[in-house]
Amino acid sequence: MFVVVIIAVLAVIAIPQFMSDGRKTKSRSEVVAFFAELSTRQEQYRVDATGYLTTAKCPAATSTTGTTVDCTAAGKPWVGLNVKVPLATATCTYVMTASAGAGTVNVSAGTPATTYTFTSPTGPWYHIVAECDQDGDGTTSTFFTSSVDPTIKTSVREDE
């Protein structure tokens, strides 16, 4: 009987942690794939257009189960970048912002908001923000990368 109680207590503690770790890993692997593709396409776009492209958020909302990524169809945000979507479905949203000119850029994203800061060069630059809500509670983890520093910065909620 005592052994059953111990196993039950461990299950109550371990299973939620295991599920949370799985969701975090899924978000990170999705974001890495999308950031790699979007960054490559932004660089190719710059060769042709001498600048980067700002896009609307796509997909339009986060999803705990994944939503079909239709961001490359005619009239959709990524069509100008010729993106080859790395995954058919996404749980996160992605938005790209482009500009030019030196200075300090503060990017606020997520719920609750996380601020990412970088120093932009004198020429063109872009940044990409991903927001993920793996448990559907409306609070998001955010991921950030830019043409200035391709390192992926994260603000992952502990309970996400």
Helices and strands in order:
Layout: H1 2-49, E1 55-58, E2 67-68, E3 89-90, E4 92-100, E5 103-109, E6 114-120, E7 124-132, E8 141-146, E9 153-155
Antiparallel strand pairs: 1-4, 2-3, 4-7, 5-6, 7-8, 8-9
Rg result: 18 Å
How widely separated are the two ends? 34 Å
Basic shape: globular
Q: Into which percentage range does the β-strand content fall?
A: 25-35%
Number of strands: 9
| Spatial order of strands in the largest sheet | 1-4-7-8-9
Number of contiguous helices? 1
Query: Which structural class matches the secondary elements?
Result: alpha+beta
Q: Provide the domain count.
A: 1
Tell me the quaternary state. Answer: single chain
Measured as a percent range, the helix fraction is 25-40%
- What's the overall average pLDDT, rounded? 83
- List SSEs in N-to-C order: HEEEEEEEEE
Which residue ranges are poorly predicted, with pLDDT under 50 across at least 5 consecutive positions? 7-24
Largest sheet: 5 strands, antiparallel
